[in-house]
Structures are given as structure tokens and as C-alpha cells.
Specification:
The protein is mainly alpha-helical. The chain folds into three domains: about 110 residues, Double Stranded RNA Binding Domain (2-Layer Sandwich); about 90 residues, no CATH class; about 80 residues. Helix content is about 65%, strand content about 5%. It has eleven helices and three strands; from the N terminus they run ααβββααααααααα. A three-stranded antiparallel beta sheet has the order 1-2-3. Helix 9 crosses helix 11 and helix 10 packs antiparallel against helix 11. The radius of gyration is 23 Å and the shape is globular. About 25% of the residues are buried.
Length: about 280
């Protein structure tokens, strides 16, 4: 733990030489430190393919505890895990969690290497009771994971996670199962979606899928949304990365808003037709 802390302080010293590494996490202006860190990465051209700024989002609340999220370039999302009694405090706490994870991501152990892949595949095999030989077969889950790691050698785990989130959502959404039924190989699916980032267009497509599910099983979107909200809250309080749960919430909310919008439009059209018929008579 001491060596990790020293490594994190070394990263701060290199990225932000005018800051005292020992005081970085005690500084009340940790929001500015996080911003400076990512600006320095942009100047070094060591940023994510989907470049962006550090973005904050505060949940609307009449009183404490307040909740704040911070989204980093690349899409990784973190939130405050302490009970905060002001929005400013919640933002600082979220920034502190994001800064620690940003710095930790710079450590050599968080970059995908051959050794990292071997260890990751071994852990995946043990956790799924699979077979190590499956790593050479892209048609298996372990093989697909191995293929994705091999395709992203040199990237950091936060960069790799941006791609993994897409496949997590496709699995949750049922799209991967549908693609398998069309006889697409895992390699073809991975190669295809590796070219895309998670944007509004992809979210809209997934929302449309859930609207179709709602038509087949009324109430399923509300059920899934309750699950996503509970998962998001539990992950935030545990200080975990939140993007998967937050994306689920946003996709489901988008689907619900579209359904309500269509219902309202339909109701308005019915009212107009009724008035027109009444006037005719």
C-alpha cells in the first residue's frame, strides 16, 4: 500500500509539478486538481479516442444528503460515496474519488501487457470455472475476452473499460444474443463494435429495443429501471466506477420518456379528432 501511495504521489509530481503531492487529496480545490490533471494529459496527447472535458452532474434534491457524479474523458463515471451536506461538498468528494482512480490508472500495473493478459485470463477462468484452453477459441466467452485484451495491448484499463461497457450493455440489452442467432462470430461482433463509441445514437437504438420489450411485456422498463437505480446507488456508496449502471438508467429513462411522449401525442390527436367531430355535428 505504501509503495502504491508513493507511486500515485510520483504521478502527481510529474503531471502537476507545481502541486504538493502530499497535499493533493487534502486540498479543498481537488476539483481544480482533477481538471488540471486531464488538461495535462490532453496536452501530452495521451487522451481517450472520445476526447472530452471533465463533466459534473448533481442530482436534484431539496436537502441533504446530496449526490454528485463526475464523468471523465473516455466516459468513466464516479460519484461521492460519503454523505454530503452541500452540493459543493458532494462535488469535491466525487472529484476526489475520480482523481484517485485517474492516478491509479497511470500505474504500470493498469496497462494491458502480455503478462497482464495472462493473469487476467487466468482469473477469468477461475471465476467462471472455465477451461484455460478456451482462451484460444474466440467462440467462447473466455476466448472473446482474451481476443479483446489482445486487441487492446498498450491501453490502460480505463481505456479498455470504455469498450467493455459497450459489450456489457449489448449483453444486458439482449443484442449480443440476437447477433449470435444471426450466426455472427464473436470476433466479427467485437471488430464491428470496437469501431464505435457509446454516444446518443447508440443509446437511442438501445432505448428503441426496450420500447419493443415493453410492448411485449408491459412494465418491464419500470422494473429494470428500479434495478438500475438500486445498483447505481449501491455502487456509488461503495466508491465503484458507475458508468454501466448510469448508462442503463439513462437508456431506460429515454425509453420511458419516448413512450410517454408518444402517448401524450396520441391523446392530443384523439382530443383534436373529438373536437373536430363535435364541431362537424
Amino acid at each position: 500500500m505504501d509503495s502504491t501511495w508513493e507511486s500515485l504521489q510520483g504521478i502527481i509530481a510529474r503531471a502537476l509539478p507545481h502541486r504538493d503531492p502530499a497535499l493533493a487529496f487534502k486540498d479543498l480545490n481537488v476539483v481544480a486538481i482533477l481538471q488540471e490533471f486531464w488538461e495535462s494529459k490532453q496536452k501530452q496527447r495521451a487522451v481517450f479516442p472520445s476526447e472530452g472535458t471533465v463533466r459534473y452532474e448533481s442530482l436534484s434534491s431539496l436537502g441533504p444528503p446530496f449526490v454528485s457524479y463526475v464523468t471523465l474523458p473516455g466516459g468513466s463515471c464516479f460519484g461521492n460515496f460519503q454523505n454530503c451536506f452541500s452540493r459543493a461538498e458532494a462535488r469535491r468528494d466525487a472529484a476526489k474519488v475520480a482523481l484517485i482512480n485517474s492516478l491509479f490508472n497511470e500505474l504500470p500495473c493498469r496497462r494491458i501487457t502480455k503478462d497482464f493478459i495472462v493473469e487476467s485470463v487466468r482469473e477469468a477462468v477461475s471465476s467462471t470455472s472455465g477451461n484455460f484452453k478456451d482462451a484460444d477459441d474466440p467462440s467462447t466467452s473466455i476466448g472473446a475476452y482474451h481476443y479483446m485484451l489482445e486487441s487492446n495491448i498498450g491501453k490502460t484499463m480505463l481505456e479498455f473499460q470504455e469498450l467493455m461497457i459497450i459489450f456489457q450493455l449489448l449483453h444486458w440489452n439482449g443484442s449480443l444474443k440476437a447477433l449470435r442467432e444471426t450466426k455472427c462470430s464473436r470476433q466479427e461482433v467485437i471488430s464491428y463494435y470496437s469501431q464505435y463509441s457509446l454516444d446518443e445514437r447508440m443509446r437511442s437504438h438501445m432505448a428503441l429495443d426496450w420500447i419493443t420489450k415493453e410492448q411485449e411485456s408491459p412494465g418491464i422498463i419500470s422494473q429494470e429501471l428500479q434495478v438500475a437505480l438500486r445498483e447505481l446507488e449501491e455502487a456509488r456508496k461503495a466508491g465503484q466506477e458507475l458508468r454501466f449502471y448510469k448508462e442503463k438508467k439513462e437508456i431506460l429513462s429515454l425509453a420511458l420518456s419516448q413512450i410517454y411522449s408518444d402517448q401524450a401525442a396520441s391523446s392530443s390527436q384523439d382530443d383534436q379528432m373529438s373536437l373536430a367531430l363535435h364541431g362537424y355535428h
